[in-house]
Design a protein that fits this description.
The chain is of the alpha+beta class. The chain has a domain of 337 residues: Up-down Bundle (Outer membrane efflux proteins (OEP)). 58% of the residues lie in helices and 11% in strands. The protein is elongated, with a radius of gyration of 39 Å.
């Protein structure tokens, strides 16, 4: 009884000591290597008077067709499926590593029947060589083998590193989703813009053809000049070229959208143009501090990887200290099955082992230096992620600050050239002006309408880019909850 109590005390002490020493450096989040506020100046928008928080992508996009396309992409996109599978793999790796914190208990039951002739046992010398000796043995045992007592936190730090890698994988999945929503919206907008450009090319082709017909009629009747006919043909040929080019571009836009969505997008879900707004974010959130970048999934992912590298240092340091392993088993044995669990049939074995590396020719020092170097690289990657995020938001803000003025100016310019074309055409048909001014007005209006579509595309894309770079736009079914940090 005293020996059993001593063994229980030893096991309890080992369990209490396991992992009580942590050799990993204390983690401190690196200071953000960026200014506290985003840039300000003529190129940047003024903050709104009233705060407006970021909303999820389902509330951000107002176009019901685009919402359906994004939902289809979230269900079918292969890159997102890979990211989800990576989460499952990382979670499984974490569970495998975490299991090393506990002993693996095994159990077994066996029965042995043996018979030996007396001749092999020396019975012949006694004058009796017949008969033999039979033996029956039954046993039930349970125990654990080579369980490492995590006295210096090696296994615990490896488990923490696996856990942080799991967290990083979850953040990577969120980053993939935000990027996917942004890319689908951008591809949808590009398709709408090219359809609008195709309609402009067709309108120009139709108007140019009508003008060319009138010009030829005047020339054939001796009123107009052949130069006017040639000039009218140039605008028609340019419109024909753009019509063919944009027809190809629209087909390629549709292919790109289908790839992002992961399935063919129905025709009734495609945008007819780009005139209607597709987003509801009219004003930026107030008080845009650069600290918002710390919540971006890619930045959080980089910090999780840094935490994992920090924990690996603790595991590398623990390798310098002795390793304690325990092996134990206990059970019952009996020569009769009926008495297996009765009487003095108890059997047990307990083997603690302590080992210490004496010469490893620098292997442990090398592993520790490697862990520290990886931690330093993790710090640099984390700081670079913040700097990249800051630059992306600042660039989007710079474009946002002037896009409204550009759009208003381009609308006014388009109206002006349309009016100029109307007046020039009237003067030409009345014979008071040459066709050159009509041609200039036609080309300028064609270019102005194209630029207006490009500016509208830039405005809509800028809102989507700004929103995604600020880390918004999830609103998706969450991944399985991780273990607590």
């Amino acid at each position: 009884m005293g020996a059993r109590l001593a063994r229980l005390r030893f096991l309890l002490a080992a369990a209490l000591l396991s992992g009580c020493i942590d050799l990993a450096p204390t983690y401190h989040r690196p200071a953000a290597p960026t200014p506290a506020q985003f840039p300000a100046g003529p190129a940047y928008p003024l903050p709104p008077a009233e705060p407006r928080p970021l909303v999820g992508w389902q509330d951000f996009f107002s176009d019901p067709k685009l919402k359906l396309v994004i939902e289809q992409a979230l269900a079918n996109n292969r890159d997102l499926r890979v990211a989800v599978a990576d989460i499952a793999a990382a979670r499984a790796q974490y569970r495998v590593q975490r299991s090393e914190l506990f002993p693996t208990i095994t159990g077994s039951a066996s029965a042995t029947w043996a018979h030996e002739p007396l001749s092999t046992l020396g019975g012949g010398f006694l004058g009796n060589s017949t008969g033999g000796f039979s033996e029956h043995l039954y046993s039930v045992t349970g125990g654990f083998s080579a369980y490492q007592v995590d006295l210096f936190g090696r296994v615990r730090n490896l488990t923490r590193a696996a856990q942080e890698q799991y967290f990083a994988t979850r953040e990577a999945r969120d980053a993939v989703q935000i990027s996917l929503v942004s890319e689908v919206a951008a591809a949808y907008l590009a398709l709408g813009a090219d359809r609008a450009l195709l309609q402009i090319a067709r309108d120009t082709l139709q108007n140019g053809t009508e003008t060319l017909t009138v010009t030829r009629h005047l020339f054939e009747n001796g009123v107009g000049a052949e130069l006017a006919v040639s000039q009218a043909e140039t605008i028609v040929d340019q419109a024909r070229f753009d019509t063919a080019r944009l027809t190809t571009q629209i087909a390629q836009d549709k292919n790109a959208l289908d790839l992002l969505v992961g399935a063919p997008v129905a025709e009734d879900l495609l945008p007819p143009g780009i005139g209607q707004p597709i987003v509801v974010l009219e004003r930026l959130p107030a008080a845009l501090s650069s600290s918002v970048l710390l919540e971006r999934p890619d930045v959080v992912q980089a910090e999780d990887q840094l935490r994992a590298a920090n924990a690996n240092i603790g595991a590398a340091r623990a390798a310098f200290f002795p390793s304690i392993t325990l092996t134990g088993a206990g059970g019952v044995e009996s020569t009769a099955l009926s008495s297996l669990f009765r009487g003095a049939s108890e059997a047990w074995v307990f083997t603690p082992t302590v080992s210490q590396t004496i010469f490893d020719f620098g292997a442990n020092l090398g592993n520790l230096a490697l862990a520290k170097a990886q931690r330093d690289a993790g710090v640099a990657n984390y700081e670079k992620a913040i700097q990249t995020a800051f630059r992306e938001v600042a660039d989007a803000l710079a474009q946002r600050g002037t896009i409204d003025e550009r759009l208003a100016a381009q609308r006014a310019l388009t109206v002006a050239w349309a009016n100029s074309l109307r007046l020039s055409t009237l003067r030409f048909r009345e014979g008071s002006d040459t066709y050159l001014n009509v041609l200039i007005a036609q080309r300028s209006l064609f270019l102005a309408r194209q630029t207006l579509v490009a500016t509208q595309l830039a405005e809509a894309t800028n809102l989507v880019t700004l929103y995604t770079t600020l880390g918004g736009g999830l609103n998706a079914p969450p991944a399985p909850p991780p273990a607590a940090k």
